[in-house]
Design goal:
Elements (H helix, E strand, L loop, with lengths): L12 E3 L1 E3 L8 H12 L5 E5 L4 H13 L4 E4 L4 H9 L4 E4 L4 E2 L2 E2 L1 H11 L4 E4 L2 E4 L2 E6 L4 E6 L2 H7 L5 E5 L12 H10 L4 E4 L5 H10 L5 E4 L12 H17 L1
Parallel strand pairs: 1-14, 2-3, 3-4, 4-5, 5-8, 8-12, 12-13, 13-14
Antiparallel strand pairs: 6-7, 9-10, 10-11
Helix pairs in contact: 1-2, 3-4
GO molecular function, one term: 1-(5-phosphoribosyl)-5-[(5-phosphoribosylamino)methylideneamino]imidazole-4-carboxamide isomerase activity
Pathway: Amino-acid biosynthesis; L-histidine biosynthesis; L-histidine from 5-phospho-alpha-D-ribose 1-diphosphate: step 4/9
Keywords: Amino-acid biosynthesis, Chloroplast, Histidine biosynthesis, Isomerase, Plastid
Length: about 250
């Protein structure tokens, strides 16, 4: 689940879940995860709809109802439907392909979305892969390279329209080979607004590595590596680490 605050926090752990609803998955599951995060006091979890079918939308809404104000929702978000998810209980909406469309950044769509839903409720997903030595934003489930490079200039510009950034290091995502420290360092150095990194977290040391590489300014999501999603990383251990970082931040 993601835990992003109004100002950069120090080494926060955040846990997220995404799901595709099919005939083998009951919609109650999403709401049960939401209740778990709610009971553990974890804010900002990601509800990612991998389809726009009625069952996926219904599952997302059930999760939002189970934890009002505690979850962020993404997948198929656009200006026309963004506000409806806020009204259903999402704290933020997460957007990628709608803004980075056909390889380009659609500034008019970005401005309209920020106006409709409010900058304070918009998270831009800037997930990227490396190409020719530079990080490039990818869209459409990370299959398509855009023409937009992730750098200081872009981060400064987009911070005018969004409350937070979410960045998956796609080159290491799901490979259990560790994090993309170079990307984390870039985000820690240049992001002017709260930013969360995802990708490659496999062991507890990866959380500390993000804290160091990001200079304490980059939050982290943990997903498929968690034992509650079939991985080997203890959910309870990550929550305990998260709580420890929270206490350290408040004491500093």
């Amino acid at each position: 689940m993601q835990s992003l605050q109004a100002t950069p926090r120090y080494g926060f752990a955040s846990l997220w879940f995404s799901y595709r609803i099919s005939e083998t998955v009951h919609t109650m599951w999403a709401a049960e995860y939401a209740k778990l995060y709610r009971d553990d006091g974890l804010l900002g979890g990601h509800v990612i709809m991998l389809g726009v079918d009625p069952l996926s939308i219904s599952a997302a809404i059930e999760a939002l109802h189970a934890y009002p104000g505690g979850l962020q929702v993404g997948g198929g978000i656009k200006s026309e439907n963004s506000l409806s998810y806020i009204e259903e209980g999402a704290s933020h909406v997460i957007v990628t392909s709608y803004v980075f469309n056909n390889g380009q950044m659609d500034l008019e769509r970005l401005k309209e979305l920020s106006r409709v839903v409010g900058k304070q409720r918009l998270v831009l997903d800037l997930s990227c892969r490396k190409r020719e030595g530079e990080y490039v934003i990818v869209t459409d489930r990370w299959q398509k390279f855009s023409d937009v490079h992730l750098d200081q200039k872009l981060l400064d510009f987009l911070a005018q329209y969004a409350d937070e950034f979410l960045v998956h290091g796609v080159d290491v995502e799901g490979k259990k080979l560790g994090i993309d420290e170079e990307l984390v360092a870039l985000l820690g150095k240049y992001s002017p607004t709260p930013v969360t990194y995802a990708g490659g977290v496999t062991i507890m040391d990866d959380l500390e590595n993000i804290k160091v590489a990001g200079m304490g300014r980059v939050d982290v999501t943990v997903g498929s590596a968690l034992n509650i999603f079939g991985g080997n990383l203890s959910y309870k251990d990550v929550v305990a680490w998260h709580s420890q970082q929270d206490h350290l931040a408040k004491a500093s």
